[in-house]
Design goal:
binds iron/sulfur cluster; 5 strands; manganese; 18% strand; alpha+beta; iron; nuclease; 6 helices; antiviral defense; 5-stranded mixed beta sheet
Amino acid sequence: MNLKELKFKGIQVVYYVVCKRKLWLFSKGISMEHFSERVSLGKFLDETSFKDEEDYSDENVSIDFYTTEEGLVVHEIKLSRALEEAHIWQVKYYMYYLSNMSVKVSYGILHYPKQRKVLRVYFSEEDQEELKKILEGIEKILSMPKPPPLEVKPYCKKCAYEEFCYG
Ligand code: SF4
């Protein structure tokens, strides 16, 4: 993969893992996130936790903060572990994205301050294949003329699109 193929935002990687319908709605500019109390809470947590650390963002990636340890360590702060798998892929995407910018990346850390948990994330060769499939999957979903049908998921009740999908 090259940087041209790494054109998606980290949040799109999260939504691909969480819900393909959500990915489509968000990517087509149908945004309900600003109405969501949960999103506001997540933003508040980002802004108030580790606030003295350096962050990084460009048009695709928005890294909560980074440190260095024989290379860059990518840190992401999250509200809840409910979507942990999706968070892991977001961090892996960031790690791979930065590596493609010739940045030496050591590993990633997911922070769940409310649960007092941290999780280390590594990027393996197998992950590269899996990430390629995810990015191709995102491309395919976005080429659909209509959103994928609603699938009842355990996190629908906490989703910013809940009213849109069930209203
Ligand atoms: S409410 Fe459920 S189906 Fe609708 S976008 Fe959210 S997670 Fe997906």
